[in-house]
């Protein structure tokens, strides 16, 4: 089973709440500033995916597939966990990726009940372009996001 990954908001709240039982105006301001920088990055990501003909969830699914630790294929359960979506939603998303020629299902050799999803050459090509854009955005603006997170975790 894959351990639950804490969201940035959960980490930030844990950082705030562990330092005191009362949330102050300054705490709210720090969290709001972090959320603002995070939202700007997410907005960039949504627009970049859209400009490349993808829905945001399609980009995120492709990233989850290719970026899965130790391999470049995932089960439906792994995909739904990584995206924090219901299993049937992961299947529908995979259907759309497959229809667009971006992903392909293959039966698992280890467990015949499982289906593995991997990107096609076209899918990897699109993902590479988008990931490059995301890396550039993080290189230019990621310091602001890190600064705000650091203010929350290390007051």
3D structure, described in words:
This protein has 155 residues and is mainly alpha-helical. The chain has one domain: Arc Repressor Mutant, subunit A. It contains six helices and three strands, in the order αααβααββα. It has helices at residues 8-19, 25-51, 56-66, 76-83, 87-99, 121-153; strands at 73-75, 103-107, 115-119. Strands 1-3-2 form a three-stranded antiparallel sheet. α4 crosses α5. The longest helix has 33 residues, at 121-153.
Please tally the β strands and state the result. Answer: 3
CATH-defined topology = Arc Repressor Mutant, subunit A
Share of helix among residues? 55-70%
- Name of the CATH first level: Mainly Alpha
Quaternary status: single chain
Strand order of the largest sheet: 1-3-2
Indicate how many domains the architecture comprises. 1
Tell me the radius of gyration.
18 Å
The main pleated sheet reads as: 3 strands, antiparallel
First-last Cα distance: 35 Å
Task: Report the total helices.
Answer: 6
Secondary-structure-derived class: mainly alpha
Unreliable spans are: none
Order of helices and strands: HHHEHHEEH
Determine the strand fraction and express it as a percent band.
5-15%
Describe how the helices and strands are arranged.
Blueprint: H1 8-19, H2 25-51, H3 56-66, E1 73-75, H4 76-83, H5 87-99, E2 103-107, E3 115-119, H6 121-153
């Amino acid at each position: 089973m894959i351990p639950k990954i804490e969201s940035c908001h959960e980490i930030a709240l844990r950082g705030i709440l562990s330092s005191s039982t009362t949330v102050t105006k300054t705490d709210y301001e720090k969290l709001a500033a972090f959320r603002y920088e995070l939202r700007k990055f997410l907005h960039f990501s949504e627009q970049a995916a859209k400009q490349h003909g993808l829905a945001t969830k399609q980009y995120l699914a492709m990233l989850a597939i290719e970026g899965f630790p130790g391999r470049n294929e995932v089960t439906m359960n792994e995909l739904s966990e990584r995206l924090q979506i219901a299993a049937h939603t992961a299947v529908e998303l995979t259907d759309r990726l497959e229809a667009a020629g971006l992903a392909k299902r293959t039966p698992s050799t280890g467990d015949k009940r499982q289906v593995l999803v991997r990107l096609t050459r076209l899918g990897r090509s699109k993902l590479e372009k988008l990931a490059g854009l995301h890396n550039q955005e993080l290189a230019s603006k990621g310091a602001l996001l890190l600064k705000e997170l650091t203010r929350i975790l290390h007051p």
